[in-house]
Design a protein that fits this description.
8 helices, Dihydrodipicolinate Reductase, domain 2, 2 domains, six-stranded parallel β-sheet, alpha/beta, elongated, 11 strands, single chain, Rossmann fold, five-stranded mixed β-sheet
Length: about 240
């Protein structure tokens, strides 16, 4: 499989290493130093593009890949205010788009666990739900896209919570997400239910970027010959 890497920072390099180890070829690498190479001619040499850039560039990158009919796997978070535009354009183009806030297989299993726990806790209002997330200081967005996904799952079932907030709050209807940025920290996410009697916690701790990069390559393999809009649930058969 021929892969275009849109974004060649730490994650792009980790993806490259895993993709090559699996026998794939990197035919294009785009970063801030060679934006002029992000052309139709170069991009269409790839079977699939993997995009990890910044919140303010991701949407345009996704749209360009869809315009050129190159399947796109996007892992950049913080741009989903324009998700419906990308989705509609993908449908119009009969294109291929896979977005995930986190490509780690472990995190996606953690999403399922979080949903299951929220369902269980929905009938126990004595417990207060909250979230914590910790990342390295170069993380562009706060809270993380993974934390937002986890929070949205909790909000679906814990009806006493009306919205998430990225700070401490004295309002019972607020679901707190407390974000920390320290080095080194590839990613820690914690969901906590606390009561006067006891606490229940589930935690996912990433040790390095290999889990995220490996999942992104797996997602690229999945979409390379498909049309439509997909998530990691599709990739993992969840």
């Amino acid at each position: 499989m021929k892969i275009a890497l849109i974004g060649y920072g730490k994650m792009g390099k980790a993806i490259e290493e895993i993709a090559i180890s699996k026998g794939h070829e990197i035919v294009l690498k785009i970063d801030v130093s060679n934006i002029a190479d992000f052309t139709k001619e170069n991009l269409t040499k790839a079977d699939v593009a993997i995009e990890f850039t910044t919140p303010h560039t991701a949407f345009d990158n996704v749209m360009k890949c869809l315009e050129y009919n190159v399947p796109i796997v996007c892992g950049t978070t913080g741009w989903l205010s324009r998700w419906n535009e990308a989705k509609e354009f993908c449908d119009k183009q009969n294109g291929t788009l896979l977005y995930a806030s986190n490509y780690s297989i472990g995190v996606n299993l953690f999403f399922e666990l979080n949903t299951f726990l929220a369902k269980l806790m929905s009938n126990h209002p004595d417990y207060n739900a909250s979230l914590e997330e910790t990342h390295h200081t170069q993380k562009k967005d706060s809270p993380s896209g993974t934390a937002i996904t986890l929070a949205d799952q909790v909000l679906e079932y814990i009806k006493s919570k009306k919205q998430w907030v990225n700070h401490t709050s004295n309002h019972k209807e607020d679901l707190e997400i407390i974000s920390e940025r320290i080095d080194p920290a590839p990613g820690i996410h914690k969901i906590k239910y606390n009561s006067a009697i006891d606490d229940i916690e589930i935690i996912h701790t990433a040790h390095n970027r290999k889990g995220f990069a490996g999942g992104a390559v797996l997602a690229a393999e999945f979409v390379s010959n498909k049309k439509g809009i997909f998530t990691m649930k599709d990739v993992l058969g969840l």
